[in-house]
């Protein structure tokens, strides 16, 4: 199913590399004349020197221990016979690395000569061979760009004739060499391709599709030899036949989704999520764009301007989901939406998540997430808070999202896109952070509300968006009362310290803390020379305590009631400050 979806995505795009070719970043270009003399070295990197220029080159595949150079492009070790010195290496180790580099470089030169001999009419291929025959590397080492090249020996280098615009690796005649440079091996036996269903000569191994944290040769599909996975005398890919065309299609599609600048991916820790739709319909394209913004926090890192308001982007995303769910945006009922979770695993890539839903169901689940996360917002800036990045930042120590274990973000995404209850570990982390920081912000309150409502759906009354005076849960009531006591202290002293000193204890062991807080509140009320305010506070306190059981404050609250405590606190605080703003507005109007 995964490979078929990727195969279809390749054919949906229409602009991906043809079979046997790939777009590869080239950082430096050696410019030669027709006699192979070095003319110059071009820097093809981006302005920040982090990325090379993408060129369409013959796909290169390495496997095993034997050197396997690419066709007229490769890294610095292969093309320049260079190994960076490492003071940590012993002389013997460094000598061994130099020996291996020489083998790789010699294999590259031999391959270039072999290919050039097949195309004697091509001056570009011949010039590259002459460059190496005539000792061109010595001139390269003396060039002023050499020090830039060796700063990062993993970058790719290619060649160009001074009179040409295209690099040598783009020469059309190299198409004839694709079969020789690929991972395909003719088995002489026909099978039915598991992806396309068509008769084929299956590939024995597949092309690399590396992800962050994996080896450069990591593959989504790979096979072991003599490890118990062979059957009926078949080895490697012959056990699960995939045609050359299908293999090239799905690997090219996955590399596009994983590529630099792709908006169809999200990376957290060592987990990589990629997502795509099954068609080019307007609904599919809009949904891909909307999910990219949802996962990445609606661009909170972008400087906010009147034209670049994150709240406008949130509303636009929600409207997209609503339009797709209601069918107002053109899209076929058969359109599907896919999310694939990947993680590095030794020399392979592990699939950690796969979801396949209709566009309408996917949009419905995204709308449910927004609905469950909705909560009263007393903030003045009203910034977005429902995106995955915002959620992760709310539960991370010091907001450092990269420190969160990768399986939690993946579980959260799965809950959102499949409409399932949020993971229990999310609730645990929120409560832990509240205890540690003595702070409940809108994101944490919204997470708790969403978590509790999903696990309690159809069981008991749901937590509401705003303050519910009918709610009788003891945790919720204790949270409301704590907010009132904190508000009273702030009114009396101009500041409040009880949250920093008592919030965690009040949240977990109310019976121990609230008697002390009640005594403090009486002192605070005595400092306020506004009888109307005192009556107002006492009415709220009475309204809350009347709903409490006759046994009084509980000795301990479980994690769910601690969560309701946090939501009740946030609700009551929002209501109190909203009431205060209304009073100020009335005073100003009078």
Offer a concise description of the structure.
Helix content is 47%, strand content 12%. The protein has 590 residues and is α+β, with helices and mostly antiparallel strands.
Q: Any overview of this molecule?
A:
The protein is of the alpha+beta class. It contains 20 helices and 12 strands. The chain has helices spanning 2-13, 76-80, 91-118, 123-133, 136-142, 146-149, 178-181, 244-258, 282-295, 310-326, 359-373, 388-395, 407-418, 424-437, 442-456, 474-493, 498-508, 510-527, 531-545, 559-589, and strands at residues 21-26, 28-32, 38-43, 53-58, 73-75, 156-161, 191-192, 199-200, 265-268, 271-277, 336-345, 348-358. The longest helix is centred in the last third of the chain and has 31 residues, at 559-589. The protein is elongated. Residues 180-185, 298-308 and 584-590 have low confidence and may be disordered.
Supply Rg. Answer: 32 Å
Counting DSSP E segments of at least 2 residues, the number of strands comes to 12
Number of helices: 20
Question: Helicity level, as a percent range?
Answer: 40-55%
What is the straight-line distance between the termini? 68 Å
Shape: elongated
Largest beta sheet, briefly? Answer: 4 strands, mixed
**Structural class computed from helices and strand pairing:** alpha+beta
Give the strand order of the largest sheet, numbering strands 1, 2, ... along the chain.
3-2-6-5
Beta-strand content bin: 5-15%
Low confidence ranges: 180-185, 298-308, 584-590
Mean pLDDT: 87
């Amino acid at each position: 199913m995964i490979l078929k979806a990727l195969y279809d995505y390749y054919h949906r795009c229409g602009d991906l590399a043809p079979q046997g070719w790939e777009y590869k970043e080239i950082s430096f270009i050696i410019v030669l004349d027709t006699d192979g003399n070095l003319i110059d070295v071009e820097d093809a990197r981006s302005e920040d020197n982090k990325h090379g220029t993408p060129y369409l080159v013959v796909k290169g595949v390495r496997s095993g221990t034997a050197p396997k150079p690419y066709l007229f492009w490769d890294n610095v070790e292969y093309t320049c016979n260079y190994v960076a010195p490492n003071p940590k290496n012993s002389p013997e180790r460094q000598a061994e690395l130099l020996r291996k580099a020489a083998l790789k470089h010699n294999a590259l030169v031999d391959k270039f000569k072999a290919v050039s001999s097949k195309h004697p009419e091509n001056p570009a291929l011949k010039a590259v061979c002459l460059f190496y025959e005539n000792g061109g590397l010595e001139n390269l080492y003396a060039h002023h760009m050499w020090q830039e090249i060796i700063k990062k020996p993993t970058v790719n280098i290619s060649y160009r004739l001074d009179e040409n615009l295209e690099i040598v690796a783009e020469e059309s005649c190299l198409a004839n060499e694709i079969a020789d440079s690929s991972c395909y091996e003719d088995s002489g036996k026909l099978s039915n391709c598991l992806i396309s269903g068509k008769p084929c000569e299956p590939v024995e191994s597949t092309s690399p599709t590396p992800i962050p944290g994996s080896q450069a040769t990591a593959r989504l599909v790979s096979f072991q030899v003599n490890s118990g996975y062979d059957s009926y005398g078949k080895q490697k890919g012959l056990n699960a036949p995939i045609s050359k065309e299908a293999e090239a299609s799905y690997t090219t599609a996955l590399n596009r989704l994983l590529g630099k600048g792709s908006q169809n991916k999200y990376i957290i820790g060592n987990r990589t999520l990629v997502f795509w739709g099954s068609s080019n319909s307007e609904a599919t394209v809009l949904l891909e764009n909307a999910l990219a913004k949802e996962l990445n926090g609606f661009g909170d890192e972008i400087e906010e301007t009147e034209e670049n308001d994150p709240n406008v982007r949130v509303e636009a995303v929600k409207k997209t989901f609503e339009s797709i769910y209601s069918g107002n945006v053109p899209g076929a009922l058969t359109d599907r939406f896919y999310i694939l979770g990947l993680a590095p695993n030794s020399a392979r890539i592990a699939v950690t998540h796969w979801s396949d839903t209709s566009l309408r169901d996917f949009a419905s689940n995204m709308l449910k997430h927004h609905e469950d996360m909705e909560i009263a917002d007393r903030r003045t800036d009203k910034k977005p808070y429902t995106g995955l990045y915002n959620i992760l930042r709310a539960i991370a120590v010091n907001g450092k999202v990269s420190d969160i274990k990768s399986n939690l973000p993946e579980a959260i995404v799965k809950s959102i896109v499949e409409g399932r209850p949020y993971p229990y570990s999310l609730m645990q982390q929120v409560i832990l952070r509240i205890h540690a920081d003595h702070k409940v912000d809108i994101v944490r309150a919204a997470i708790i509300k969403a978590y509790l409502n999903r696990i309690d759906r159809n069981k008991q009354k749901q937590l509401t968006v705003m303050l519910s005076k009918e709610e009788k849960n003891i945790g919720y009531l204790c949270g409301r009362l704590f907010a009132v006591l904190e508000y009273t202290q702030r009114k009396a002293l101009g500041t409040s310290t009880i949250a920093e000193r008592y919030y965690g204890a009040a949240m977990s062991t109310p019976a121990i803390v609230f008697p002390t807080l009640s005594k403090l509140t009486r002192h605070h009320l005595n400092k306020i020379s506004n009888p109307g305010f005192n009556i107002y506070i006492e009415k709220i306190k009475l309204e809350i305590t009347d709903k409490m059981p006759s046994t009084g404050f509980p000795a301990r609250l479980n994690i769910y009631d601690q969560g309701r405590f946090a939501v009740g606190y946030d609700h009551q605080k929002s209501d109190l400050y909203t009431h205060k703003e209304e009073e100020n507005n009335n005073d100003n109007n009078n």
